Amino acid sequence: MVANVLVELANKKVDRTFDYLVPSSLTPMVKVGIRVMVPFGNRSLEGFVLALKEESEIKELKEIIEIIDNEVVLNEELLALGKRIQEETLSPLISCYQVMLPKALKAKKGHHLGIKYESVISLTHEVVDLSCYNAPQKEIILKLQQEKECLKKELASISTSSLSTLLKKGILKEEKKEYYRLQKEVEKKEKYPLTLEQQKVVDEVLTSKNTYTPYLLHGVTGSGKTEVYMEIIEAVLKEGKKSIVLVPEISLTPQMVNRFQARFGSIVAILHSRLSEGEKYDEWRKIARGEVSIVIGARSAIFAPLSPLGAIIIDEEHTQSYHQENSPRYSAIDVALMRGETNNCPVILGSATPTLESYARAERGVYHLLELPHRVLNRPLPKVTIVDLKETRKRTNSYFSTTLLDKIRLRLEKKEQVMLLLNRRGYSSYLSCSNCGHVVKCPHCDISLTYHKNSNTLRCHYCGYGEKYITICPSCGEESMYSVGFGTEKVEEELKKCFPQTGIVRMDYDTTSRKGSHEKIIEDFASGKYQILLGTQMIAKGLDFPNVTLVGVINADTGLNIPDFRSSENTFQLLDQVSGRSGRGTSLGEVVIQTYNPDHYAIRYAKEHDYLGFYKEEMNIRKQLKYSPYYYMTLVKVSSAIDSIAKKEIEKIYRSLERNLSSSILLGPNPSPLYRINNTYYYQIIIKYKKEENLYPILEKVLNYYESNNQIKIIVDFNPRSFI
Ligand code: ADP
Ligand code: ZN
Questions:
Q1: Could you tell me if 578 and 552 are in contact, meaning their C-beta atoms sit under 8 angstroms apart?
Q2: What SS3 string covers 570-589?
Q3: Which residue spans within 41-192 are E strands per DSSP?
Q4: Alpha carbon of 101 to those of 26, 105, 155, 338: distances in Å?
Q5: Ligand nearest to the CA of 316
Q6: What is the mean pLDDT of residues 463-473?
Q7: 693: alpha, beta or left, given left = phi > 0 and alpha = psi -120 to 50?
Q8: How many angstroms from the chain centroid is the CA of residue 127?
Q9: What angle do CA 571, 386, 372 make, to 5 degrees?
Q10: Which of 39, 223, 307, 672 could lock onto 372 through a cystine, CB 3.0 to 4.6 A?
Q11: How far does residue 191's CA lie from ligand 1's centre (Å)?
Q12: Whose CA is closest to 23, among 2, 43, 40?
């Protein structure tokens, strides 16, 4: 037998398969979709078996050295899916398969890295007469009679000596068993009866439960989308089918997961990047072994090996991180649609603020539009007040307008909770010299450093570089450095001065870097330990705190000046999402948005919760400027450690694109908005097109041409979410 093997070398030159002879000793074990070790040149490499055949055209074949997996890690659906992703993203096939699997699987054979074993105790035989045992021994035996088996450490906490006596006497036995971390009992909860609007949406989706149908569920914040998802999952489950639910990384809180576990119990697996590699591997094994029927996870959970699939749900479909920013640059939404097609099941994209691309598709009937225009139980959307910071600044130096301060005070008196958004972390934006104007920049990036007072450092938010805070200007030597702008750290400081008696907690990248800290902040805020939660865009999505009745946006303009054509859309989405955190319980909620641009349309429409109004106005702009969704947009970037080489090569690529693309508009070549990051220089071209037959062939040629050039790297990103 001959195996067709794709070797694991992340170098495009060998992104192809080779034939290997299967030695007869391995023949029964070698299957399509497992990994094997093969000789390659003078070393041995891992590879995926993509096909098996009787013979090869090649004469002298080398033999497979050994197998790595006993069970298939990539089933037929995923093998085919990887090929499609490769074709559509022009990424190496091997990277398309690697992204589907947990990293812990990369452990070498025999090591079982990531698998955790625990000592488990059980009774060797039925014990009828308990009279001859002492009290702790009885307790252990009774517990085992009830639970059949227990963790050794659990029984040892009753009495170590009794446990070892019973083991010695042969009444109990000890075994090492594979053990899943993250096992947790959640109390089951009764579900709510759906509202009429919710029921209508569920019914419509279920009419197509055995056919591939993409839906866009446009439901305002608090309209009960999650309840709708669970109802659909339950119906699908009754038919013996499984579901994937994608949620933005940051919304994957225990709160969110609990809602699913309380409804469905232990058949739910969770996959996101805050889990340890071992935990992820455990969850993945549960899925691969068919022990769970529902997977809730972030982007890469779209590859969960569940089968057969009955529904795929993508919550907050507008989330930028559903598009992966490194190779393979895939969109989880595209992959969801591919899997929906293969599995003949509905795919539901849900959001209060769908991307313009998705809503335009719904308008054209590519997606079926479903709507939840009201909050559940007639709860109104919160009233939004806009505060003009230009006016505020005339009267005070504070980051808080009197309007916002008064409203916070009122809510605190009522024992309600407040959420405050400032989408900028650190203490101040940057450090500047009042004498010579010098601004402290990152030595590796074309970016100013941000002052972090808590750690007394200046840090680069792009490459992670950090240095000690300075007071003396490195350029002119005067002691005249002062900090400009403000971030969450500074606002927290002022907030504590204004409300010294109030529990205040800050949630941003810096306070959530330790494992479990993100969850802890949310738990503490939910339990009422804090009355004010201050944070970056991390707090805007998904969270459901019924006691929050006021949301304040400290500065709505932070995202408006970013050089990206989507900055208005991103601002509208952020404002609408964070507003949606207010008034989700029984009390009426309100929102205060502070801005220097009260007349900006993104802010005006956010005030009215008017998604359609925003959509129409923004679509007009996109049409005039020939941007997505009127045109497809593909980004081509060149990066190099040597500036002049990157510049020369992007110009070469530009000329070749110009010659070969007849129906496209080319923007560039330009230095990228983030021109130097980590001592690497970036240049880019944006290709805009409606239909361009030559696009893939020419981009493939470009990629092939540079594949063995070590001085530069080419990045091709189809329909990226960010052009920076
Ligand atoms: P969304 O995902 O659209 O923001 P959620 O599903 O989180 O909305 O629902 C908002 C709140 O309303 C949650 O606290 C949820 O438990 C509650 N809820 C949802 N549906 C119902 C219902 N039919 N009856 C009562 N409460 C509901
Ligand atoms: Zn840097």
A1: no
A2: HHHHHHHHHHCCCCCCCCCC
A3: 43-53, 66-67, 116-123, 149-151, 172-179
A4: 24, 7, 36, 18
A5: 1
A6: 89
A7: alpha
A8: 51
A9: 60
A10: 223
A11: 11
A12: 2
- Let me know: does 635 contact 655? Beta carbons within 8 Å: no
Cis check: omega of the bond before 629, within 30 degrees of 0: yes
Q: Is 317 in the pocket of ligand 1 (CB under 6 A)?
A: no
The arithmetic mean of pLDDT across residues 283-297, rounded, is: 92
Residue nearest to atom 4 of ligand 1 (CA): 222
Cβ-based burial of 261 (10 A; exposed 0-12, middle 13-18, buried ≥19): buried
Nearest-CA neighbor of 682 among 722, 624, 720, 637? 637
On whether the CB atoms of residues 278 and 181 are closer than 8 A, the answer is: yes
Rounded Cα gap, residues 409 and 386, in angstroms = 18
Contacts for 334 with CB less than 8 Å, ≥ 6 apart: 88
pLDDT confidence of residue 280: 86
State the Cα–Cα distance between residues 430 and 482, nearest whole angstrom: 9
> Is the CB of 261 within 6 Å of ligand 1?
no
Distance CA 74, CA 51 (A): 12
Task: List, in order, residues 6 or more apart from 543 with CB less than 8 Å away.
Answer: 251, 253, 255, 522, 581
CB atoms within 10 A of CB 161: 11
pLDDT tens-digit series, residues 603-661: 999 999 999 999 999 999 999 999 999 999 999 999 999 999 999 999 999 999 999 99
Structure tokens at 12: 């495009």
Burial 17-37 (b: 16+ CB within 10 A, else e): bbbbbbeeebeeebebbbbbb
Sequence letter at residue 486: F
C-alpha to C-alpha distance for 346 and 108, rounded to whole angstroms? 38
| Per-residue DSSP letter, 323 | B
Q: Is the CB of 262 under 6 A from ligand 1?
A: no
Task: Say yes or no: CB of residue 340 within 6 Å of ligand 1.
Answer: no
In ligand 1, which atom is closest to the CA atom of 225?
3
Residue 586 Cα to ligand 1 midpoint, Å, equals 12
Q: Is the CB of 195 under 6 A from ligand 1?
A: yes
pLDDT of 185 over the 80 cut: no
> What pLDDT does 195 receive?
95
Residue 144 to residues 99, 121, 138, 149, 174, Cα–Cα distance (Å): 42, 8, 10, 6, 12
Q: How many angstroms is it from 452 CA to the middle of ligand 2?
A: 15
Ligand 1 neighbourhood includes 576 CB (under 6 angstroms): no
For ligand 1, mutation pick of 226, 252, 374, 377 (most atoms within 8 Å of CB): 226
Best residue among 220, 232, 348, 376 to mutate for probing ligand 1, ranked by most atoms within 8 Å of CB: 376
- 353 SS3 class: coil
Tokens 């925003």: give the residue: 614
Residue identified by tokens 């009444």 is 171
Task: Please calculate the CA angle 18-91-19 and round it to the nearest 5 degrees.
Answer: 5
Backbone angles phi, psi at 437, to 5 degrees: 85, 5
Say whether 448 sits in a helix, a strand or coil: strand
Calpha distance 223→231 (Å, rounded): 14
Tens-digit pLDDT profile for residues 244-276: 999 998 888 888 888 999 999 889 999 988 888
Using CA atoms, how far apart are residues 611 and 614, in angstroms rounded to an integer?
5
Instruction: Report residue 719 as tokens.
Output: 């329909």
For 414-456, the pLDDT digits (tens) are 999 999 999 999 888 888 888 888 888 888 888 888 888 888 8
